[in-house]
Amino acid sequence: MTVGAGVGAPVRVGGPRDSWDAVLARLAGEGVALVHARTGAWAPDERDQRGLRRLLGGEWERYRSLAPPMVRRDFAASRLFLKTAVGRVAGVAPERVEIVRRPGGRPRVRGCGGIDVNLSHTAPGVMVVGLTGAGRVGVDVERADRPVAGTGLAREVCTPYELDRLAAMPVDRRDAALVRWWVLKEAYTKAIGLGLAFPFDRCGFGTDSPPRLLRPDGSPAASPGWEFGVHPVGGTHVAGVALCRSVPGRGGD
Q1: Is residue 202 a contact partner of residue 215, using CB atoms and an 8 Å limit?
Q2: Peptide bond into 94 cis (omega under 30)
Q3: Which positions fall inside the 4'-phosphopantetheinyl transferase domain (predicted)?
């Protein structure tokens, strides 16, 4: 499934020493790039507390408060991955990249020329970063085989139209449909800066490709400049992306 006319599938960057040429070329040519990796390959040396503190900056105390150790490791890996991605675009070292949070928790890159960035990571250790200089981007990643049908999730996050579509589907397709809708809604609400504060049953999607934003009754929503999509990641996960090209990038100042 494709995102739209200008967004390609996520590029894998296996570790800190891997090339970012494909990512930079995608960003230069299309204005947006998605990148994915595993936390294990990006975990910084936690014995180097001074270097780790420089990398994490204002998130150092948050890192120290996390438990168990695996959670701290994945948190540090996600920040190294995110800051390396921004640093490669901006031409600065990862520890020079400052990530601050807008109200609602949306990340903002300070002082890096209008780059907008979004991060998602989930067990077991999969990360996706979206980068754009062309507007706003939101991403989400989940296990593709996550068993969610029959858990009550659909009643919480689906529009009436989606519930009708779900009921008409074969049982063995419902998990995939719910995961698809979840990552799309998460990506969209992260892109608009509200995240889980925005009721998921107020925005909908169908099963077409590329996805389109729908009203709760299934009619097309007014969404000028928006592109949506779903991509497989690493053979085990699925990522949703939402890109709005109709607003100026707000990634840096």
Answers
A1: no
A2: no
A3: 136-239
**Residue 246, pLDDT score:** 74
Q: Name all domains of the chain by residue range, CATH numbers in brackets.
A: 11-244 (3.90.470.20)
pLDDT band, residue 108 (cuts 50/70/90): confident
User: Does the N-terminal peptide bond of residue 103 adopt cis geometry, omega within 30 degrees of 0?
Assistant: no
Q: What are phi and psi of 100, to 5 degrees?
A: -120, 170
Q: What gap in Å lies between CA 116 and CA 243, rounded to an integer?
A: 10
pTM value is 0.91
Confirm if 86 and 97 have CB atoms less than 8 A apart.
Answer: yes
Residues 196 and 57: their CA atoms lie apart, in Å, by 26
Q: Give the DSSP letter string of 120-132.
A: EEETTTEEEEEEE
